[in-house]
Amino acid sequence: MTLSEMQAIVARRLGDDSVAMRALATDWLNLTQRAMVPLVPWNDLLVTSTLNVTGVSTALPAGYVRLYGNPVLATTGAPIFSAKIHELRTLAATPAGPPQYYAVVFDAALATHQFRVRPNPDVSYLVDFDYIQGAVDLVNGTDRPVFPDVYHHILVTGAVEMGKDFDAKTDRPVEYQKYQDMLAAVVQQAASFVRKT
Question: Are residues 147 and 109 in the same domain?
Answer without folding.
Answer: no
